[in-house]
Amino acid sequence: MSSTEGKVIKCKAAVAWEAGKPLVIEEVEVAPPQKMEVRLKILYTSLCHTDVYFWEAKAQDSIFPRILGHEAAGIVESVGEGVTELAPGDHVLPVFTGECKECAHCKSEESNMCSLLRINVERGAMIHDEKTRFSINGKPIYHFLGTSTFSEYTVIHVGCVAKINPLAPLDKVCVLSCGISTGLGATLNVAKPKKGSSVAIFGLGAVGLGAAEGARLAGASRIIGVDLNASRFEEAKKFGVTEFVNPKDHDKPVQQVLAEMTGGGVDRSVECTGNINAMISAFECVHDGWGVAVLVGVPHKDSEFKTHPMNVLNERTLKGTFFGNYKPRSDLPSVVELYMRKELELEKFITHEVPFSEINKAFELMLKGEGLRCLIRME
Questions:
Q1: Residue 285 catalytic?
Q2: Is residue 268 flagged as an active site residue?
Q3: Is 178 known to be catalytic?
Q4: What is the per-residue pLDDT across 253-285, written as a single tens digit (0 to 9) for each?
Q5: Is 50 a catalytic residue?
């Protein structure tokens, strides 16, 4: 039994007090886990663009004060009532979406969009009692994506926690709890390219390079990176990208360029930008008869997808995906094993590292567009 089980823990957390202002390292109180909750000791976390997006709060409402963070790895400190799958000492990945294992989505082999624990960017408290588990001098500090990993300790619903191999290095596998798995799964689970096939990846950020890594693992012979930033191509080669197309270099639509490069179109495409024009191009660049396009990026709320119906009638397939179609609790452990078998390479995604006390440096790097993932050491 942990010496802290059932007790309030005081620890350090990086609190976002208001939009766009530097995070402040504060001493917070973290309440014990309640029914179907676990309290984790976070050892490593990393910064994802989604954290920055809601910290800036330029395009949507965001709740403050809040503890951001959702890509992380840690160890279970204590468990609440009804938790049987996890125990103190287990090594885990917290995930921004969940798997209750009871709803229609969780029982379906085809879906990972849990009805109870699907991502909710507006929720700032726990599902069980609509209260926060964080506070400072009695003042509630709100949660983010049900994870809030920019804290030495956090409380999460058990359905959003994946138990993993205790031998896996937490400073590497922490990046699997969001973007990398999203891109990887979009290719392996949804696009499903055949060995020797051609794959176009739109957007060569961390998610896009995760998709490229999936294409490499699947044995694609041509992996064509499409990005407006030509400086990204050199880095993308490490992830198996064989060719690069910058739409700005051509006076014709990029889908036409890709069709000419590949004799009618690529076999698969994965779109990882959220730009509606890139989404349309990704669909229209796949080969008729068998081409499959997968949309990963989240578009502006007012965007509309427009294409000629003949593109569908000519047997092109358009698919969407959420978190790479991975069920967090059921599937993430096997993704970790891909890394443990040295099939999946994670080190190349981690381009910077800072101590927790310098977490604002990670935000600065992200805002400058430098690197892929910045690892934040909690100790």
A1: no
A2: no
A3: yes
A4: 999 999 999 999 999 999 999 999 999 999 999
A5: yes
- Token pair, residue 376, equals 């934040």
Catalytic residue chosen out of the listed positions 39, 45, 71, 182: 71
Q: Is 287 a known active-site residue? A: no
Contacts of 3 (CB under 8 A, 6+ apart): none
106 belongs to the catalytic site: yes
Cα–Cα distance between 96 and 61 in angstroms, integer?
18
Identify the active-site residue in 178, 272, 285, 374: 178
| Position 286, amino acid | V
The residues that bridge with 74 in the sheet, in sequence order, are 42, 92
70 included as an active-site residue: yes
Examine the residue annotation and report whether 103 is marked as an active-site residue of this protein: yes
Select which of 37, 91, 97, 106 is catalytic: 106
272 is catalytic: no
Instruction: Output the CA angle 352-357-358, nearest 5 degrees.
Output: 40
- Residue range 202-239, pLDDT digits in tens: 999 999 999 999 999 999 999 999 999 999 999 999 99
DSSP per position, 111-162: ----TTTS--SS--S-TTTS--SEEETTEEEB-STTT--SBSEEEEEGGGEE
Q: Which of 11, 103, 222, 358 is catalytic?
A: 103
**pLDDT digits over 26-57, tens only?**
999 999 999 999 999 999 999 998 999 999 98
Instruction: Tell me the one-letter amino acid at 337.
Output: E
Query: Which pTM does this prediction carry?
Result: 0.95
